[in-house]
Amino acid sequence: MFFIYGILSTILFIIILPFWLILGMFKPKLVAGFKEKCGFYGEKLPLTLPSPARGEGKRVTLVFYGVSVGEVIAMENLLKKTREIFPETNIILLTGTKTGQEIAQKKFAGTCDLISYFPFDLPFCINNFIKKLKPDAVFIMETELWPNFANIMNKKNIPLFIINGRISDRTYKSYKKLSFFFKPILRKYTNIFTQSKQDNEKLISIGANPETTTIMGNLKFDIKKPDTSNLNFEKSECFGEGKVLIAGSTHSGEDEIILDVFTQLKQEIPDLKLIIASRHPERNENIFALMQQTGFVCSKRSELLHTPHPNPPPRVGREKDLDQPSIILLDTMGELGKFYSVCDVAFIGGSFNKTGGHNPLEATIFNKPVVSGPSVHNFKDIYSILTQGSGEIASVDYSCQNSSLMPRDDVNDAGKVVKTSEELKESIKKLLTDEIFYQKASKDCENVFEENKGALEFVIKVLQSIV
């Protein structure tokens, strides 16, 4: 099977190559990293220096592969921990897309010895990859099944692992019908480590070896709370006892949405406060001008640092008798993660445009429910867990608007994905006004971390058995 597949895939590649290269002239991202994907890593190859600990004349080389942005981001703690524990090990991070490559270069340039592209699933590309990088083990994030790659790694006795393995319901249905094809591929992997019991059962039913397929948990949830001891922000002094909504990592166009939602909610929840943190600091002055147009008392975090007890001059408008600000612009660097600890509900930006959202776990780790717009493809699997626990991303459910009704137990309410600004307002309002619903949502945040913890330690133990 693998011999025939290798020949056919190579012939097909040769046939489509001219058309692909021509199309790449108009869409450069299609041919990004083409040379490296063919296995020609050139001068980017990291030095293999002697390792006194092993005495084998070369360092152990570990290769990690995340196809795109979400997978690359999910490996952050793993890569940094690997570098910390195994300082003499070569760490190579490969991606499959240009956007994944850009994120990898930005986040891990100081952590990895080489950041490049994963080879095409063609025999000559894979053999070039092995010859150039000399991997001692390869770790593939989530479930990327490459027949030629798995077969060649197996033949050359190079350990090949799937970590954080998952399979969506839709993909599972397709793979199940073709289990005769996928079973021999899955059996070529040294080990498959899955996120959940459901993922484990799905992969085994397709053909994975039950003896080498194990639940590890979810790396994306294996994070620590930021230290807030030096936050230097007293919520009661700046905001009083009101509810706090935070809009984190907002992009252009989203500030107007959240300010409009806040203005409407303020009419029903008079003591509601808002914190806005832009994804791009250069937009801060424009955002502050938008804030002032609301007529509410506004302040900047940088100013409050020098004035712990704000006492602004008398103002005209809807809050002329209040001293405490209703809206704060978080214009200081590196504090957003800590500020999620002081909010009640978080709106995660980058979700009402085509950005693909930002990491909602920065808020939910403090047991704060999150609400996002419809564009969350960079964190789709995380939102799937936060909104429903399994399966596809859940839409906002307003079937339980009456606070006297108990929330449904079969839905995870740690997060909500909404389509419109009106749904955003209603979802935030429900969390802020329905105490029973809010307590369940907050508890759901805690539960998802409890259910998915331990993944990082699991993989580190696997690395220790190799290094």
Structural class: alpha/beta
- Sheet with the most strands: spatial strand order: 3-2-1-4-5-6-7
Return the average pLDDT rounded to an integer. Answer: 86
Major β-sheet annotation: 7 strands, parallel
- Output the CATH topology of the largest domain: Rossmann fold
List low-confidence stretches: 49-55, 310-321, 389-408
CATH superfamily of the largest domain: Glycogen Phosphorylase B
Q: How many independent structural domains?
A: 2
Number of helices: 20
Which bin fits the share of residues in helices?
40-55%
CA radius of gyration is 25 Å
The N- and C-terminal alpha carbons lie at a distance of 33 Å
Mind sketching the topology for me?
Blueprint: H1 2-26, H2 34-37, E1 61-66, H3 69-74, H4 76-85, E2 90-95, H5 98-108, E3 114-117, H6 123-133, E4 137-141, H7 147-155, E5 160-165, H8 169-177, H9 179-186, E6 191-194, H10 197-206, E7 213-215, H11 235-239, E8 244-250, H12 254-268, E9 273-278, H13 284-293, E10 298-300, H14 301-306, E11 327-329, H15 336-339, E12 345-348, H16 361-364, E13 370-372, H17 380-387, E14 415-417, H18 421-433, H19 435-452, H20 455-466
Parallel strand pairs: 1-2, 1-4, 2-3, 4-5, 5-6, 6-7, 8-9, 8-12, 9-11, 10-11, 12-13, 13-14
